[in-house]
Q: What sequence folds into this?
C-alpha cells in the first residue's frame, strides 16, 4: 500500500442485546458464498496494495468454517501462507486474557468487582485511593486514567523487562485524566491481569492459556508467546520504512520486536485455523462442539457488555457505510454497530503485521483476517466479506481503501512538511562532556550518555536496539539515529540549571510515531 501510514494507534482508530449464539437464521447468501466468491473478494486487495500474504477465516450458519491462506509468508521467498501459518495476533490476545479471567470467575476463584489488591497485595497505582478502588474489571476496560500506551516502551521494542516489572512501574506512571473518567487504551494493565491469573491459578499465564483455552478449543497451532514458537511456518513481517517517515515507501521485511513482557496483552501467535475455532466458541457463548461449556453463558454476556465509551459519530456515511454511531470497550473486545447490527470486534497491530476480527452475533457470523503487513488492508477485507455475508448494499471497499490510503499519505507528508531531519535553531549550552552520565527514570530504568570522538552517544540499557549517536537538535537537545528498523527515533532534551544537567526528558521525533514509543512519559534524573 504505497504511501499510507499505519500503527497501533491507527489500528485502534479503525476499530471504531443480540440473539442467542445457539439459534441463528440460516441465511442462504451467507452459506452459499463459496471459495471462488471469497477469492474474488480477497485477491483484488492483494493485487492493488502489494500485500505479501494473509489468511482468512469465516464462520457462518449452515456451512463449515472456511479457512484459507493467500500469498507468501515473506517477500522474496516462495513459502506460501497456508491454514497453519502462525501470525502474531497482537491485541486479539486481550480477549483470551479476559476469557481466562472468566474461567476463574466461573470457578469461584475471583470476582469481576474484586479489588486487585485482594489478589495482588503489592499492586499500586500512583494514587493510593485509586489503588484501593481498582477492580479486576478495571484492568480490562481502559478507563484507569493512565495515558494512551503508558509504559509500552518497556516491551516495544523487546528488552530486559519482564512482566513483574509492570507492578514496579505503575506507581510512577502519571494519570492523564481521572479514574474511570474516560477512555485511553493501554497494555500494561492487561499485563497485570496476566500476573493476577498466575497468582490466583498457580499457573503462569502462558500455561493457563495453553491448557485451559487452547487445548479444549483444539487450537493446536497456537502458542501463548512468540518465544514458544517451534516451527518455521510463521508469517514474516513487512513495513514501509520511509523516507521521510515510517508508513511511506516500498515494503521491506522487518523483524519482530515485541518482548515477552507483553504476552498477556498481545503475545499470542496463532494460525487462521485456530482463529476459526476461537470465533466458533465466541459465537456459541463458550459452548464446545460436544456441548460442554468452556465458559458459562453468563460470562459470555459479561465479556461482551459495553463498559467504556470509546467513540461516537453521526454514523454511516457515503464514503464509510460501516462507520459506527457508538463504540465502546467491553472485556477484551470493542462493541459497536455495523450496518444496523451489533458487532463484536478487535484489531491487532505489531511491527510488520496487522490483523482484524469481527463477529455479528445476531447472524452467527464471524470473520478474521490476518496479514503480514503493517497496514490495515485486513480491515477493509473483513468489511468486504461481512457485507457479502449479510447481503449489504454493494460498496467498493477496494476503492474506499485506496482513497483512505492516499489521504493517510497526504496527511503524513503534511505533518512532516520540511522533513523530520531539519534541526531546529539553537545549540548546546554546555560542553558535550557535561551531558555525559547515567540517567534514571523510575518506571523505565537507566540510559547512559557518553562522549566519544567529539560526539554524544546514548544507550537505553533495558532496550538493546536503542543505541545511537546523539546529533544536536536545538537548545540543549539532541536526536537519536537508531537503526532503520529498530523503532522510532527520539528527541532528547536536557534540563540545564546553574550550568549543570538537572534532568532529561524525551519525545518521539516523528509526529506519526506509534503510541507505544511513549518517550513523552519518561522523566530522567542524573544518577550520582
A:
Amino acid at each position: 500500500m504505497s504511501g499510507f501510514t499505519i500503527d497501533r494507534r491507527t489500528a485502534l482508530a479503525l476499530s471504531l442485546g443480540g440473539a442467542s449464539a445457539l439459534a441463528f437464521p440460516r441465511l442462504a447468501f451467507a452459506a452459499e458464498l463459496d471459495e471462488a466468491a471469497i477469492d474474488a473478494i480477497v485477491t483484488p486487495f492483494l493485487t492493488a496494495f502489494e500485500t505479501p500474504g494473509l489468511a482468512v477465516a469465516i464462520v457462518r450458519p449452515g456451512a463449515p468454517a472456511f479457512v484459507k491462506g493467500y500469498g507468501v509468508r515473506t517477500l522474496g521467498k516462495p513459502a506460501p501462507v497456508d491454514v497453519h501459518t502462525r501470525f502474531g495476533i497482537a491485541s486479539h490476545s486481550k480477549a483470551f486474557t479476559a476469557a481466562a479471567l472468566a474461567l476463574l470467575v466461573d470457578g469461584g476463584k475471583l470476582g469481576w468487582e474484586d479489588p486487585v489488591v485482594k489478589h495482588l497485595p503489592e499492586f499500586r497505582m500512583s494514587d493510593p485511593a485509586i489503588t484501593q478502588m481498582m477492580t479486576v474489571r478495571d484492568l480490562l476496560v481502559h478507563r484507569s486514567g493512565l495515558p494512551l500506551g503508558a509504559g509500552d516502551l518497556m516491551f516495544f521494542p523487546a528488552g530486559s523487562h519482564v512482566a513483574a516489572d509492570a507492578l514496579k512501574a505503575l506507581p510512577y506512571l502519571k494519570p492523564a485524566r481521572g479514574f474511570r473518567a474516560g477512555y485511553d487504551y493501554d497494555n500494561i494493565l492487561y499485563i497485570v491481569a496476566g500476573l493476577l491469573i498466575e497468582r490466583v491459578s498457580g499457573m503462569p499465564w502462558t500455561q493457563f492459556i495453553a491448557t485451559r483455552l487452547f487445548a479444549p478449543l483444539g487450537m493446536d497451532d497456537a502458542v501463548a508467546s512468540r518465544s514458544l514458537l517451534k516451527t518455521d511456518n510463521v508469517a514474516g513481517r513487512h513495513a514501509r520504512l520511509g523516507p521521510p517517515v515510517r508508513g511511506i515507501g516500498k515494503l521491506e521485511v522487518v523483524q519482530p520486536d515485541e518482548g515477552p513482557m507483553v504476552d498477556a496483552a498481545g503475545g499470542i501467535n496463532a494460525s487462521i485455523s485456530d482463529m476459526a475455532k476461537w470465533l466458533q466458541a465466541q459465537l456459541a457463548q463458550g459452548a464446545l462442539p460436544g456441548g460442554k461449556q468452556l465458559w458459562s453463558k453468563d460470562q459470555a454476556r459479561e465479556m461482551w457488555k459495553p463498559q467504556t465509551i470509546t467513540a461516537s459519530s453521526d454514523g454511516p456515511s457515503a464514503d464509510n457505510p460501516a462507520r459506527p454511531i457508538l463504540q465502546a470497550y467491553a472485556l477484551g473486545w470493542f462493541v459497536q454497530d455495523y450496518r444496523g447490527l451489533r458487532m463484536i470486534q478487535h484489531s491487532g497491530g505489531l511491527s510488520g503485521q496487522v490483523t482484524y476480527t469481527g463477529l455479528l452475533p445476531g447472524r452467527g457470523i464471524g470473520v478474521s483476517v490476518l496479514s503480514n503487513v503493517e497496514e490495515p488492508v485486513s480491515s477493509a477485507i473483513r468489511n468486504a466479506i461481512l457485507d457479502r455475508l449479510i447481503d449489504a448494499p454493494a460498496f467498493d471497499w477496494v476503492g474506499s481503501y485506496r482513497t483512505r490510503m492516499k489521504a493517510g499519505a497526504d496527511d503524513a507528508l503534511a505533518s512532516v512538511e520540511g522533513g523530520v531531519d531539519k534541526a531546529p535553531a539553537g545549540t548546546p549550552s554546555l560542553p558535550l562532556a557535561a551531558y555525559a552520565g547515567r540517567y534514571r527514570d523510575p518506571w523505565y530504568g537507566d540510559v547512559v550518555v557518553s562522549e566519544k570522538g567529539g560526539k554524544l552517544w546514548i544507550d537505553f540499557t533495558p532496550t538493546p536496539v536503542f543505541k545511537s549517536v546523539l546529533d544536536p537538535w536545538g537548545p540543549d537537545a539532541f536526536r537519536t539515529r537508531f537503526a532503520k528498523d529498530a523503532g522510532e527515533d527520539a528527541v532528547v532534551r536536557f534540563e540545564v540549571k546553574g550550568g549543570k544537567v538537572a534532568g532529561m526528558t524525551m519525545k518521539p521525533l516523528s509526529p506519526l510515531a506509534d503510541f507505544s514509543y511513549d518517550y513523552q512519559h519518561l522523566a530522567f534524573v542524573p544518577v550520582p
Remarks:
- Residues 397-415 form the longest helix (19 residues).
- Residues 1-6, 16-26 have pLDDT under 50 and may be disordered.
- The chain is about 25% helix and 20% strand.
- The two ends are 49 Å apart (CA to CA).
